[in-house]
Amino acid sequence: MSLPPDSLSIASNAGPTSPYVTQIAGVAVPALAERFGTPCYVYDAAMIRQRIADLAPFDTVRYAQKANSNLSVLRLVRGAGVLVDAVSAGEIARALAAGYQPGPGDHAAGQPAEIIYTADIFDRASLDAVIEHDLAVNCGSPDMIDQYGARCQPLGRKRGVTLRINPGFGHGHSQKVNTGGEGSKHGVWHEQIEMCVERAARYGLTVEGLHMHIGSGTDMEHLGRVADAMQAFALRVGPSVHAISAGGGLSTPYRGNEPPVDVAAYYSLWDATRRRLAEAWGHAVALEIEPGRYLAAESGSLVTEVRAVKQMGTKEYILVDAGFNNLVRPAMYGAYHPLAVCPAEGVPQPSAALASFVVAGPLCESGDIFTQKEGGYVEERSLVRPRVGDYLVIGAVGAYGYTMASNYNSKPLVAEVLIDGGEPRLIRAAQTPADLLRGETSESSRD
């Protein structure tokens, strides 16, 4: 019997003859389910630390917290020396609560801001928070420069800003995560760079950094094009630039049998770019990277219980108690996540047969399928036949899992658990039905 690649990429105990997963980071899956309920998100702290260590050659690692913004995760990455970005007033509040210090930083002095606000617009709450805490700003539109400058000028603040540049091309594992080119809303269009530098100067702002990100799950060829484009655009801005950011987009091996991204080669590519810029300008240029998915994705598992197994024509379905309200990526992008069964008693069968299944959730929505391709095309996976009451573990969900969850079908948000040193700890309690109703108002009934 051959082992499906799904089993290999979820837990280290999936040996060469076992298609099961029975533990996550050394803790038994049934014990996690019994203690925290299902569905529940479980994160492996050691995996996050390992991915941070991978990026040590970069001068600054800045976590894109939109991937997973739980306070315990933010405190973990902060403890490992990672800085953070924020895309909303809420994420600013999270960063501050996690212990990150406010302040604009100083790229020229080699002191990057601990928190940077990076977006394509300021909503009013975000702009107020940026001004209140005097945060660094990465501008993704010319209007952001005007709005930020107009608030800074009366305060006498002459600050450095970063520009996020759209280089005119993009790439990603799905068109929905392609963040470059005319089809993307993200960044300052590359033909407007000089105009933005001049606009910033009107308010006493200096462009001290450039940032570029073309999409999530991009390959080395496209990432190389970004480095070349960065050099050309930076030379157009000139020696006021003291830092460049490679953005994010490092791929995650969701299928388990994919080769890991060559971080050393990626760093060498960008290091060569910054060295050429430093030589041209006669001063040091700091090199940042802004991972989100890369740090968090592989750490996460979604533990869900099998509630039905049924035949639908030629296809057999496994129905679990997690749905796209918990993990929307398969429904939104056709994203692939590894799947494996854990017996309720935690003991694998010695000679388990494999069969093909569609895996689906409980929601009143035909798109509530975990095994689908982009466009909603249902596919099957090779899995051990489960029984009702067994568990299904969905792997590599640490990024854009919980943060994109919803209360669709009035389903409460689930618990989050962090395992560190073999000890599981609740880091977010599951919602209750009462939580769903809190804050809503209703008129009293009338006869």
TrEMBL record:
InterPro entries assigned: Ala_racemase/Decarboxylase_C, DAP_deCOOHase_LysA, De-COase2_C, De-COase2_N, De-COase2_pyr-phos_BS, Orn/DAP/Arg_de-COase, PLP-binding_barrel
Protein residues bound to substrate: 293, 329, 333, 365, 400
Enzyme class, spelled out: lyase
This enzyme's EC code(s): 4.1.1.20
Biological pathway: Amino-acid biosynthesis; L-lysine biosynthesis via DAP pathway; L-lysine from DL-2,6-diaminopimelate: step 1/1
Annotated binding of pyridoxal 5'-phosphate, by residue: 249, 290-293, 400
Pfam family, one: Orn_DAP_Arg_deC
Catalyzed reaction equations: meso-2,6-diaminopimelate + H(+) = L-lysine + CO2
UniProt KW Phosphoprotein keyword: no
Keyword Oxidoreductase: no
Subunit structure: Homodimer.
HAMAP family: LysA
NCBIfam families: lysA
Protein name: Diaminopimelate decarboxylase
Gene this chain is encoded by: lysA
